[in-house]
């Protein structure tokens, strides 16, 4: 079925694949792609301003998507209840995004446009994202920058006082806005401040140190959540007219990732178990520029911004096993493999491609540093060209961070970097209105699957989180609320009682095992399985092996885990145990998805499906769809539903960055 | 290397706390400080004890969750470094370290080394923002901002709200934290409209939370992992005096 | 305006501003005081004449001692306000941290800044002694109201009294070493560009005043002034 890409770069798609389930109607507006969002904004039913205060919306998560959605919904007049597991909404992991945020402003006059950003994102996602969503993302990208500047986000400026831009992987225009190496922090603080304003005004009720442990459905609609107060251990229900999950991605299934330690899948996994379809769980992004692992005790991996690749050159020794110091290796014995393999994008090749190239070099024994799991990112040329002060101005904080962690000075010797899990493109399936297959359950930001296809471009996560939260969800949720009159109930409803009992039972069960292994030991073991067999490269045998081992590990977990302390107070081990229990279930679904998708696309590289020169080879005829998995009650046998992907505005091509 | 830790253990807010001594063996110099505590906690769990509770999340020095006083210095005394980014190569075999939570009446202890920093959120809620709602804002390039102003705003905005400034201050003052937000928004054109209102409200909240006053000693800036400078406090003073007396 | 001032004083920053402004008054006073002290080198007549001038300045526009009393009242109010605000702020600071650290190390703080309050307390005690000693004469073993020069010389011939004064002057220098810079910081007059200037002024003030104040007692003790 596959096509030889060398002779036929453009692939005809057999279409359309049929819907297998009416629940997967994405409800994309008609008309040309550039008019769809405007059309939807016109079509949605509006809520009378005085009626908005009668609606309560629950938002779980306070990152870019959650905080921006909470603030904007409250500004519109809704009653909002926002929950986060951190001690303050300001600490959500969006804060760690370093590099920047894309927007099709074309301030550089270098040929950027909404269409180009849309095209780059669709192509970067290896044609596995929904066209209409991505186009809308590119459209609202410009509003985001305006909004953030008005909030006082201190973006980098030029001497003339206008906004500065930098370029990022996968793009040939400079469209990335940034605030030093702390763009995510500044955007999050902007959203946090907008949220704080609404808290002060009494429009948002904020619940920090509160973890959502179940979703409550009444009459098939999302009506609330069950939350554990992490300080007192109290389990309580909260009722609303709609629930928004903004709980981020599930990279921590790998144990070692660039995510914060607390990032987890529990909210979306519980929603999945309640009926929300989980889309493309196998699409995970491995970021090429992270600081390599230094030992067994390693608790997380630290990302070095992709922006470093603007000036750093990636290389390994030409000879396998070359153990000389980097400075001692002469120029002609170095392999600048990204520049060699991808001359037109060079060191700015997209993340999936750069990561895989690094893995290839290390697999060939040419890796550097402890265990040979690393490649050099060398700034010697840039320093020669631009001087140390210029490099310090651009990347000073990143260089300092590298030195703090490794004890090596990147001004005088090349950095060592290695790929690490960074982002999950998969997530709960949502329609064009960002609603999941459960009516009234909306999913925004990284927690949904919608915009990045099989690979996300740098500086697009911040864009998507804020697009969803500031500009998309606040419109679409109103349409749901006004169109669906809900039964008047309280949290005394049987559905809430049942969900609370389930949560209490799970807590009691975890505490009761009293085994001989720590939660972390299970998490590490799970992470190793998923990294080895469902990581940067996947194959049939490995995935089948993982599918044997994960259920066995899950079983062992429930017999041997040791969770000390009680459920009636702050108990960090108990929190971790609940999250790991959910990761142990999700991991299986990831592998099932990866096994079923026998093509390679974006971050999902199936060794069986590659071109002659080792690049990912898609199979558009058979896999041009979103795989949406339904929980069947049996973790080993989820039901697959397919949402076909149609491309009317772009031509499918074998992605090439050569 | 082997270390002796004396750690503040307090089961709950209302309970009494005490120091407990632990031995940690075979610490690698490449570990972070929190990874060293992870190792200790794993041993405690298997030995049937409760692990030491401490706040942490991103472990890359930006979320501001972690923080403890390590041998008398907030975040452990490496310049511009949070506890999560502090590495064990800065310690030596046989070191005895005392670990204490941030101590301030505005930061009540939740458990062990975990404190409640909600006071910081309430200071921001009092006015630490520009009151613009989503939509209806001018084009991002409509108001030029001098690069120097943007850079100064960024210097102040880098605050991660960890609370080390309060922990290190002999008066448990929150002036550096409050000043950082006042300075960030105060130097940008977007922040001018509410400049007076903001500083009055934030300082009133800061005092209400029970933080001490500033005696310009400077320990806050010295331990700040983001190197927020004392001049944000001068700006806070300037803005407050101006706002009060006009 | 009055309401605004009261509201301002309620805030910790307002109290600090009061300390800074009263500190400036005190700072000006000690500089004048030191300059006046140096008139000891002009001999008995010069110094006593200066003392007489202080009593009679403003005559005949106003009666004798009017200006002196105005200055004294201003100083008394300033010192009272300075001390009151200091006590209130200290209490706030102590309440800010009811439980202290078992181990606390300083990172950059200098001795002067950490001991500002103790130094201040020492200065208040000294001030009482000093007034009783040279102004009211009740703590002086050989006080002659009309001859301040004599009072100074007879007092500083005693090494123990010189020791007390040197300690007090050292405390004053320490207080100003931190306090002078702190005034500018508290009043918001400090900027990155002026920081070194105000720090420098504080150091020079501290050293200059110490030298100026220490000279007279040491000179008396060493026999230069007799």
Summary keywords:
heterotrimer, A: alpha+beta, Flavocytochrome C3, Chain A, domain 1, Methane Monooxygenase Hydroxylase, Chain G, domain 1, five-stranded parallel sheet, five-stranded antiparallel sheet, 17 helices, 19 strands, disordered N terminus, C: 226 residues, mainly alpha, 3 helical TM bundles of succinate and fumarate reductases, 74% helix, globular
List the helices and strands and how they pair.
The complex is a heterotrimer of chains A (658), B (246) and C (226).
Chain A: H1 36-43, H2 49-52, E1 56-60, H3 64-76, E2 79-83, E3 101-102, H4 114-124, H5 131-151, E4 176-177, H6 183-200, E5 204-207, E6 210-218, E7 221-229, E8 235-239, E9 242-245, H7 266-273, E10 278-279, E11 284-290, E12 313-317, E13 334-335, H8 337-341, H9 351-363, E14 375-378, H10 380-386, H11 388-406, E15 415-424, E16 427-428, E17 441-443, H12 461-483, H13 494-513, H14 519-534, H15 540-560, H16 572-596, H17 620-623, E18 625-630, E19 639-644
Parallel strand pairs in A: 1-2, 1-9, 2-5, 9-17
Antiparallel strand pairs in A: 3-4, 6-7, 7-8, 10-16, 10-18, 11-15, 12-13, 12-14, 14-15, 18-19
Helix pairs in contact in A: 3-6, 3-12, 4-5, 5-12, 10-11, 14-15, 14-16, 15-16
Chain B: E1 3-9, E2 18-24, H1 33-46, E3 69-70, E4 73-74, E5 96-100, E6 109-111, E7 114-115, H2 118-125, H3 147-157, H4 164-168, H5 175-186, H6 195-208, H7 219-223, H8 231-244
Parallel strand pairs in B: 1-5
Antiparallel strand pairs in B: 1-2, 3-4, 3-5, 6-7
Helix pairs in contact in B: 2-6, 3-5, 5-6, 5-8, 6-8
Chain C: H1 2-10, H2 12-37, H3 43-56, H4 66-96, H5 111-114, H6 116-135, H7 148-156, H8 159-186, H9 195-221
Question: Would you kindly provide a written description of the structure presented here, covering whatever features stand out?
Answer:
By secondary structure, chain A is α+β, with helices and mostly antiparallel strands. Helix content of chain A is 36%, strand content 14%. In chain A, helix 4 packs across helix 5, helix 14 packs parallel to helix 16 and helix 15 runs antiparallel to helix 16. The radius of gyration of chain A is 24 Å and the shape is globular. Chain B has two domains: 98 residues, Roll (Ubiquitin-like (UB roll)), CATH 3.10.20.30; 127 residues, Fumarate Reductase Iron-sulfur Protein, Chain B, domain 2 (Orthogonal Bundle), CATH 1.10.1060.10. Chain B contains eight helices and seven strands; from the N terminus they run E-E-H-E-E-E-E-E-H-H-H-H-H-H-H. Chain B has a five-stranded mixed sheet. A two-stranded antiparallel sheet of chain B has the order 6-7. The longest helix of chain B is centred in the N-terminal third of the chain and has 14 residues. The radius of gyration of chain B is 20 Å and the shape is elongated. Chain C is 74% helix and 0% strand. Chain C contains nine helices and no strands. Chains in contact: A-B, B-C. At the B-C interface, helix 6, helix 7 and helix 8 of B face helix 1, helix 2, helix 4 and helix 8 of C.
